[in-house]
Amino acid sequence: MGKGKRNKARRPPPAKRLPDKNNPTIVQQEYKAEQFQGPLPPPQILAGYEQLLPGAADRILAMAEKETAHRHMLEEKSLDAEIEGLKNEAGDTKRGQYCGLAIGIIAIVSGAYTATNGAPWPGGFIGTGGVVALVSAFIVGRNNPHSNNGDQQSKEVVPYPDK
């Protein structure tokens, strides 16, 4: 066999000497974190974007303006829907009151008619029963916590809560 070149493995450079007990070294490490909230970064970061990519600051500003306009539009739609719901609820309440009035008048008139045509006890029950039922429905409806008669607690409408 012939003599070949021997491959020498490359060795890593020697490690630096570790500090000994007589000569202690202090290692200091810093950590810096920045945080911002909202659609626009702070001016220093915005300037950094502009240096990396010319025109980026204008694009970021346009994006923030579009986002703000979108949020305003959503809030306006939400408020319009809430107002419309309150109007519908008021109309339902008024309609219910008119129906209750009609039922009460019909009960009193039919009870009076029945009582004047020879049946005073049944006429009294019909007239009084109709009125008592309506009055109790109004009283129970107002005192019932599950009722939806306008005794609602106000709810804050937040389409996009801030993070």
Task: Let me know the number of strands.
Answer: 0
Q: Which H/E pattern describes the elements? A: HHH
C-alpha termini separation: 76 Å
Largest sheet: none
Class per helix and strand makeup: mainly alpha
Oligomer: single chain
Nearest-angstrom radius of gyration? 41 Å
Fraction of residues in H or I helices: 55-70%
Q: Runs with pLDDT <50, length 5+?
A: none
Q: Proportion of β residues?
A: under 5%
Shape: elongated
Mean pLDDT: 79
Written overview of the protein:
The protein has a domain at 43-143. The chain has helices at 43-52, 56-116, 120-143. The two termini are 76 Å apart. With 163 residues, it is mainly alpha-helical.
Structure keywords:
mainly alpha, elongated, 3 helices, 58% helix
Summed up:
The protein has 163 residues and is an all-alpha fold. It contains three helices and no strands. The chain is elongated and about 125 Å long.
Topology:
Layout lengths: L42 H10 L3 H61 L3 H24 L20
Helix pairs in contact: 1-2, 2-3
